[in-house]
Design goal:
Layout: E1 3-13, E2 33-42, E3 45-51, E4 61-64, E5 69-72, E6 74-76, H1 88-95, H2 100-105, H3 110-118, H4 122-138, E7 141-147, H5 154-170, E8 174-182, H6 193-210, E9 216-221, H7 228-240, E10 244-249, H8 257-263, E11 268-271, H9 277-284, E12 289-292, H10 294-300, H11 307-312, E13 318-319, H12 333-342, H13 348-355, H14 357-362, E14 380-383, H15 391-394, E15 401-406, E16 409-412
Parallel strand pairs: 1-4, 1-5, 6-7, 7-8, 8-9, 9-10, 10-11, 11-12, 12-13
Antiparallel strand pairs: 1-2, 2-3, 5-14, 14-15, 15-16
This protein binds N-(iminomethyl)-L-glutamic acid (NIG) and fe (iii) ion.
N-(iminomethyl)-L-glutamic acid is lined by residues 80, 109-110, 113, 220, 248, 251, 296, 322, 324-327.
Length: 416
């Protein structure tokens, strides 16, 4: 198998000799770093790393990092990047004073994207999503979750999930597919929400499972969208088909979504902008990972998820982008780091743990992704010349990625 050696690494960040499946509470303040290091990959796997004095003499390909830093690729555990077009007209509505919920109530928002997706071919959807994947890779992401949820009919949900499967097969990004039929009630089911939930349980979930198109099941369990009882029913049905929940909860109200997610063994509960001590206490007695989406709070002017309180309670906080056309048209995880530091008052070390090891865990990928460790996937990027790790979130619009390696292959080569 071909070998790739990165030598003269100034700082090899998040390098673990005993890989942790998740990082909780106070441990999130610690970031393991090897100074003056080498990193050796064989095929798509990390083979060894350590002090430069112990580096192998050569390899099939050698990159001299010249003192620059190597970071593990971000894992983005919450995205909606398969969608048609964009919704900047609603951006203007928001500037003029409408809220996200008001736009949704008028039949805009998710329903606008659903209408456009219905009119867009599978090939065209793939093409548009590919542009977004390439952009995410360029900004340092190596693994992500992608949700359906702009189909809202069996046929269109399957169309979205087939696009996600094609992205899995044709891009170097590690992708997990998440079935989100319960993203909104489609226009033709207005006033008949219970019947739409029947359709999801009786037709969509079996069809998705039949084609093995999804790894996870998601529900937008929130004020004005799906209730706790409906969520429970859909998660129960999903479980029968082997779909683990990763759900949207507490973005718009204290919805009970955290509790129902925990009850059904959700891998993560995401958003949590409206979280009280009750939800934090519930999470403390579970394996469910609380995931903040600071880009959404920034873009919609919502409160930021109280992640500092969650960390103080000993929880493993994850942070993802939520890249979607309505509430977060950005998949830049470095900006998520900056928002975490500036708006949520996390330290850079806490924010990096939240976007690497803990998001890998929220994707069910902690054995293979999220850190530099022997046996894990060779997914990392080499930075441009930067003075410190803290500079990464500090320089909040500077592109600091020089060279991207995914699955042991050089995907983008900068000047090192
Ligand atoms: O996570 N909150 C629900 N879903 C997305 C937004 C989807 C959209 O507006 O298109 C979110 O923010
Ligand atoms: Fe989302």
């Amino acid at each position: 198998m071909p070998t790739l050696l990165i030598k003269n690494i100034g700082q090899l960040v998040q390098a673990e000799t005993s890989p942790r499946p998740r990082v909780c509470g106070d441990d999130m303040s610690h970031l393991p770093i090897v100074h003056n290091a080498y990193l050796l990959c064989e095929g798509d796997t990390i083979k060894a790393f350590g002090d430069m004095s112990e580096a192998p003499a050569t390899a099939d390909t050698v990159i001299d990092a010249k003192g620059r830093f190597v970071m593990p690729s971000f894992c983005d555990s919450h995205t909606h990047i398969v969608y048609a077009g964009s919704r900047e007209h609603e951006f203007i509505d928001k500037i003029n004073g409408l809220s996200y919920e008001e736009i949704a109530r008028r039949g805009g928002g998710i329903l606008n994207s659903a209408k456009l997706l219905h009119e867009t071919s599978e090939d065209e959807l793939y093409r548009q999503a590919l542009v977004r994947i390439r952009e995410m890779i360029h900004f340092g992401t190596g693994a992500c979750d992608i949700k359906s949820g702009y189909g809202l009919s069996t046929e269109d949900e399957l169309k979205m999930l087939r696009v996600i499967r094609r992205l899995k097969e044709t891009t170097p990004m590690t992708i997990r597919a998440n079935f989100l039929g319960a993203h909104a009630v489609p226009a033709e089911y207005k006033g008949r929400q219970a019947e739409y939930v029947d359709l999801i349980c009786e037709e969509m979930i079996p069809a998705v499972a039949e084609e093995k198109l999804a790894d996870f099941i998601d529900v937008f369990c929130d004020t004005g969208f799906f209730t706790v009882e409906e969520t429970a029913r859909m998660l129960e049905t999903g479980a029968k088909y082997g779909l683990r929940p990763k759900i949207h909860a507490n973005e718009l109200g204290v919805s009970g979504g955290v509790q129902v997610g925990v009850k059904y063994g959700a891998l993560s509960v995401d958003h949590l902008e409206r979280t009280t001590e009750v939800e934090i206490e519930c999470l403390r007695h579970s394996d469910t990972i609380p995931t903040g989406l600071p880009g959404t709070s920034f873009f919609l002017n919502l409160p930021f998820t109280p992640v500092k309180e969650m960390i103080a309670a000993g929880l493993p906080v994850a942070l993802a982008s939520d890249y979607n056309p309505g509430s977060t048209p950005s998949g830049n995880m470095k900006f998520v780091l900056s928002l975490a530091c500036i708006k949520m008052r996390l330290t850079p070390a806490q924010a990096i743990n939240a976007t690497t090891i803990n998001t890998a865990a929220a994707l069910g990928l902690s054995g293979s992704h999220g850190s530099i460790a022997v046996g894990k996937r060779a997914n990392f990027y080499i930075t441009k010349d930067i003075p410190s790790v803290d500079f990464i979130p500090y320089a909040y619009t500077t592109d600091i990625v020089d060279t991207v390696v995914l699955n042991g292959e050089i995907i983008e080569r900068g000047d090192c």
